[in-house]
Please model this.
Amino acid sequence: MSARNNILQKLRSGLVGTTPRPDDFDERLVTEPWQYNPDDRIRQLRTQMEAVHTELYQVTSQNWPEKVAEVLAARNLGNLLHAPGTEHGSQLAEYWQSSGQSVELLTYDRPIEEWKDELFWNVDASVTGTLGAIAATGSLVVWPDRMEPRLMSLLPPLHIALLKASEIEDNLYTFMKRNNWSAGMPTNLLLVSGPSKTADIEQVLAFGAHGPKELVVLILEDA
Amino acid sequence: MNQRIPVTELTSTFRERATGALADQQLRTNFRTAMDSLMQKRADAFPDEDEREGLRELGNRIKARALSQLPDLLEQLEANLTANGVKVHWAETTEEANQIVHSIIEARQGTQVVKGKSMVSEEMEMNEYLADRGIECLESDMGEYIVQLDHEKPSHIIMPAIHKNRHQVARLFHDKLGVDETDDVDELIQIGRRTLRRKFLEADVGVSGVNFAIAETGTLLLVENEGNGRMSTTAPPVHIAVTGIEKVVQNLRDVVPLLSLLTRSALGQPITTYVNMISSPRKPDELDGPEEVHLVLLDNGRSGAFADAQLRQTLNCIRCGACINHCPVYVRVGGHTYGEVYPGPIGKIITPHMVGLQKVPDHPSASSLCGACGEVCPVKIPIPEMLQRLRQENVKSPAEGPKVKDGGAKYSAKERLIWRVWKTLNTSPALYRLFLWGATRFRKLTPSNVGPWTENHTAPVPARRSLHDLARNHLSGNGSAKGGQ
Ligand code: SF4
Model:
């Protein structure tokens, strides 16, 4: 503990006779430039996300599983990781069965240690929910949990994210406020703004660095 | 011209390295191209000047507020992280930090470490430290991976491999990984992806840096584009985050403007692909994520900078790299010339506190004080002012008690004496006149070698008649003041 004490003591001696600066956070600076009327909100999100190679589709809360099947078929993929314990996961599973889809549905129902190899190499795609999105920067808010663990949106080459149109906020600040994040944060909270990318070689943009090569967002509107 | 500068073997001085770098046309082209593009991207990301300046002012205030209560915030951060199940460690030196990291790995009998991008781990030379103890520590950021594969050091804090072009990377991958040589950037990245994915799977421990540590909630925030940061902090059973003590901010909302400033200043992006907020290890009912999360808080000279109210501003830095991208010196000499972890303007103002001025005596003066760095800094660090201050500290005599580690590195009693004589001469009219009288008459006696000046210039010789003399002549109407040489 001596390193701790030494560091704190050194810092304290530098502050003798001073008082902490007041908190004069001006929230207008992080909200006013980033406000949109309802029609523009989705447009702003779309523009931002498409600029970084994200595909967005506006679908309904009823027919979206069809779109998932279509996206997978277009890429000729063999399996899809889903979470049957969630509302959207069970809706997808139902559709899959009733329409006789051939793409195999996988479930993240055991600790990563038990199927690391398979998840790392053999899962083609995943579909997860989101907490909402931020129009200003084109970001999805992803809150992984037991049903949809952290690696589910990271390892498969294709990530399909479901976003309710009503959950799109103007900017990060209002999103944070509305959900009262400062009162307590989950294990892991993510903002995801496109597929994984890098510009580390000659600043040439390449997608699919370590995470998903493709991100597809389905914006769900009430039918 | 594929010659590289092996930083680890550097024994030369800044000047010598700069001379070498300036003669390397390939290196200069690589940097010029990259920096021009980064400057343009930043400019495009801040189309509205008022918005930008308002945000910079806010960024500055947030950092100043955090520093004004730094020890309290560190304690609050520690308490909240501990309550969340994260173990917090403190290290005064890089040696201590390495020991902590090593003992955590040892306790798990780990042999493989995979690392997200972390400049603090570069400060620690963690890769080398662990390698000496039989632990493989692999970089997973594409740029860092390329640099590590070639036994180099990063040449830029955001773009570590910016000094290399695609052909150089292609050859490197061919030589080291046995793959076919390809100039296609997409293919090169896919080679890296496959190689590193295996490592993510096998690693016992993941190491990462931290962009902001939030005291209010006990949260570590990391930004990145590749997903390697998320991998390193999620896939292995243990996650160790290493960071400097200045990275703490008070409230969660404080990161909103800082995040925007960071990604726009660094890469011209409205946001990075991933903003990863970690507040605890895997909870009992969760199916992935590390079982253990550790945070190592490193001082390494930062408290030295903190001790002085002016130099404390150095710790505002959010490591965006904008000052580097806009620096006319950096773009010409490249990152490796600085010979230390942090290059460019930020390197010049932070490195002396870490390694001492004795080791980097040329750092404060390797600047034209053009002011570009201070103008773009998103948290408004007056970098030119810091440089001037460090120049003063650099020439203080031991008796004057320099305030910076190993200050007075360039103090010279002879130089001090010369300036004292100069001052006396210029503040006493009688002496000055006497000097002028002598200088103009014995002008042929000035030495032909006056130190560094005569390396590139001819030696100065006083004029036959002084300006005063000529002016007096002229004003008294005494003819056609023809004088001079
Ligand atoms: S000194 Fe300012 S401009 Fe330079 S890296 Fe730090 S925050 Fe960015």
Notes: The two ends of chain B are 47 Å apart (CA to CA). The pocket of iron/sulfur cluster is lined by residues B 317-323, 345-346, 376-379, 381 (CB under 6 Å).
